[in-house]
Write a structure and sequence with these properties.
mainly alpha, 21 helices, 75% helix
C-alpha cells in the first residue's frame, strides 16, 4: 500500500471551525429545544452541563487523542492499537455511509423550503403540502415505486457541492468552506433570533422553555435525555473527530480545542432554543392556545410547524429564508464531515489518492442517496433508518469503543498522557473515571431503555415487516459490513503499524 503525506489543517482556528461545523447540525436546531422543554425546562440545563462535562468533553478529548496520535482514519488508528479493534472503526465507517445517504436529503428539503418561504407555497395546510404535494409520500411504508423530481434535483445539487468541497482537500476545501459557512450561519441565526424575540408572544414561549421544574431532576429519564442530547449533538462516537484530529499538527492543544468546540456547540443549542421557542410563543398566541400545544421537534418542527408560523408573521418570507438557509448550512458542514470519514478510511486502507476516493467512494454514497430518498418511500425510510442507526449504531459503537479502550486494552492512561503533552489544561483522574465508568454506564442504560421501548411498541407505528429491513436490518447491516471489511487481509501493513507506534 502506498504511503502519502498526511494532509494538515492550515491553522488551529481552521480545525476548530471544522469541528464546530461538524457538531452544529440539524439536531442542534430542532432537537435540543424540545428536549429541554420536555425535561424540566430551565432545570434541564443542569443535567445538560453535567453530561457535557462528564461524557461529551471527555469522549471528545479521547477521540482527538486517538486521531492525532496515530494520524489515521478510525479503522487504521484502531488497528494500530489492536488489530481486532479495527472492526469498531469499519463499523463507524458503515454508520457514516448510512447517515450521509439520508442526511443529505434533509439538506435538500431545507434548500427547497428556503425558496418556498418567499411565496409561502405551502398554503394553509403545511402538513399536507409537505407529505403529499412536496414529497409525494406513499400511504404505506415500503419499497420505492416512484421518484420525486422536486427532491431529486436539489439533492443532486447538495451532493455536487459536498463532493466539490471534499475534492479540494482538507485545507482548501473543508477548512475554507467552514471558515465561510460558520460565521454566515451565526449571522443568519442571530438575525433570526433577534426577529423572533420581538414577536408578540415571544415572552410566553421563552418562559415555557426556561421556567425551571426542579422536581424533574429526580427523574432518571431527564438525565438520560441530557446525556443523549450531548452525545448526539457533538459528532462523537462515529469516527468524525478521530478523522478530523488526524490532520492536526503534533503540538496541537487537544484539551483546549475540545473545550472551545464543546462549549461553542452548546452555546449554539441554547441560541437555537431561544429562537425556536420565541417563534412557537408567537404561534401559540396567534392561535389562542398554550405553548405546549404547538411544541414539536425534528421534521415536524422544521417543515410543518415553522411554515405555519411563517405564514402568520410579518416579514415571514425573510424569516423563513433565514431559518431554512441556516438549516441547509448547518446540514452541509455536518454532511461534509460525515463523508470525509468514509473517504479517509478508504484512502488509508487502499492508498487511493483524494480525487479518485472522493468521486468514486463519495460518488457511491451520493448514488445510493439519490436512488432511495427522493422517492415516495423516502420519508418513512429516512425516519426509520435515522432512529435505528442512531440508537443501535452510533451509541452502541461508542459503548463498545469505550469498553474496549478502557476495560479490555486499558489504554486510557496512555491517551491521557498523550493529550497532556501539548495541552494547557491537564487531565486528571476525573477524565478516566468519566470514560471508564460514567459514560459506559449511561450509554448502557440508554441501550436498555431504548430496547425496552422498541419491544413495547413498534417505532413510529410502522409495521414489523418494514422495521425488520428499514430499521433493524440497516443498523445490523452496518455492523456486519464493518466486521466483513475488517476480516479482509491487509496486503501491506500500514507503516505506522510496522514501526509499532505507541
Amino acid at each position: 500500500m502506498s504511503q502519502q503525506t498526511r494532509e494538515q489543517w492550515g491553522s488551529r482556528t481552521g480545525f476548530l471551525m471544522a469541528a464546530i461545523g461538524s457538531a452544529i447540525g440539524l439536531g442542534n436546531i430542532w432537537r435540543f429545544p424540545a428536549e429541554a422543554y420536555k425535561n424540566g425546562g430551565g432545570a434541564f440545563l443542569l443535567p445538560y452541563l453535567v453530561a457535557l462535562l462528564t461524557a461529551g468533553l471527555p469522549l471528545l478529548i479521547l477521540e482527538y487523542s486517538v486521531g492525532r496520535k496515530y494520524r489515521k482514519s478510525p479503522p487504521v488508528a484502531f488497528r494500530q492499537i489492536s488489530k481486532p479493534a479495527s472492526v469498531i472503526g469499519w463499523w463507524q465507517v458503515a454508520i457514516c455511509f448510512v447517515i450521509a445517504s439520508y442526511y443529505a436529503v434533509i439538506v435538500a428539503w431545507a434548500l427547497r423550503y428556503a425558496g418556498f418561504s418567499f411565496g409561502k407555497d405551502w398554503g394553509k395546510d403545511p402538513e399536507t403540502f409537505f407529505s403529499a404535494d412536496f414529497l409525494h409520500a406513499g400511504s404505506e411504508p415500503g419499497l420505492p415505486t416512484s421518484w420525486v423530481g422536486g427532491v431529486f434535483w436539489p439533492l443532486l445539487a447538495v451532493w455536487l457541492v459536498v463532493l466539490l468541497i471534499l475534492a479540494l482537500g482538507v485545507r482548501r476545501g473543508i477548512e475554507r468552506s467552514n471558515q465561510v459557512f460558520i460565521p454566515l450561519l451565526v449571522v443568519f441565526f442571530v438575525v433570526l433570533v433577534i426577529r423572533a424575540v420581538t414577536l408578540d408572544g415571544a415572552a410566553e414561549g421563552l418562559d415555557a422553555l426556561f421556567s425551571p421544574d426542579w422536581g424533574a431532576l429526580t427523574d432518571g429519564s431527564v438525565w438520560v435525555a441530557a446525556y443523549g442530547q450531548i452525545f448526539f449533538s457533538l459528532s462523537i462516537g462515529f469516527g468524525i473527530m478521530v478523522t478530523y484530529a488526524s490532520y492536526l499538527g503534533r503540538r496541537s492543544d487537544l484539551t483546549g480545542s475540545a473545550l472551545v468546540a464543546g462549549f461553542a456547540n452548546s452555546s449554539f443549542e441554547i441560541l437555537a432554543g431561544i429562537g425556536v421557542f420565541a417563534t412557537l410563543g408567537f404561534m401559540a398566541q396567534a392561535n389562542g392556545v398554550a405553548v405546549g400545544e404547538v411544541v414539536t421537534d425534528g421534521v415536524g418542527l422544521a417543515f410543518i410547524a415553522f411554515p405555519a408560523v411563517i405564514s402568520q408573521m410579518p416579514m415571514g418570507g425573510l424569516f423563513g429564508f433565514l431559518f431554512f438557509a441556516s438549516l441547509a448550512i448547518a446540514g452541509i458542514t455536518s454532511l461534509v464531515s460525515i463523508v470525509q470519514v468514509i473517504i479517509s478510511a478508504v484512502q488509508d486502507r487502499t492508498g487511493m489518492r483524494r480525487l479518485p476516493a472522493v468521486w468514486g467512494v463519495g460518488g457511491l454514497v451520493a448514488v445510493v442517496s439519490l436512488l432511495l430518498f427522493p422517492t415516495d418511500a423516502g420519508l418513512a425510510l429516512l425516519d426509520s433508518a435515522d432512529h435505528f442507526i442512531n440508537q443501535y449504531g452510533i451509541a452502541l459503537a461508542a459503548l463498545v469503543f469505550l469498553v474496549v479502550m478502557g476495560w479490555v486494552l486499558r489504554r486510557l492512561p496512555a491517551f491521557q498522557a498523550h493529550a497532556d503533552e501539548t495541552s494547557a489544561i491537564r487531565l486528571g483522574l476525573w477524565w478516566r473515571v468519566c470514560l471508564g465508568v460514567v459514560t459506559p454506564l449511561v450509554l448502557g442504560w440508554m441501550m436498555v431503555d431504548s430496547l425496552r421501548a422498541e419491544f413495547d411498541e413498534n417505532y413510529g407505528g410502522y409495521p414489523t415487516s418494514f422495521l425488520a429491513w428499514a430499521g433493524w436490518g440497516i443498523a445490523g447491516g452496518a455492523l456486519v459490513v464493518g466486521v466483513l471489511i475488517a476480516l479482509v487481509p491487509w496486503r501491506t501493513a500500514p507503516r505506522a503499524e510496522r514501526e509499532e507506534v505507541r
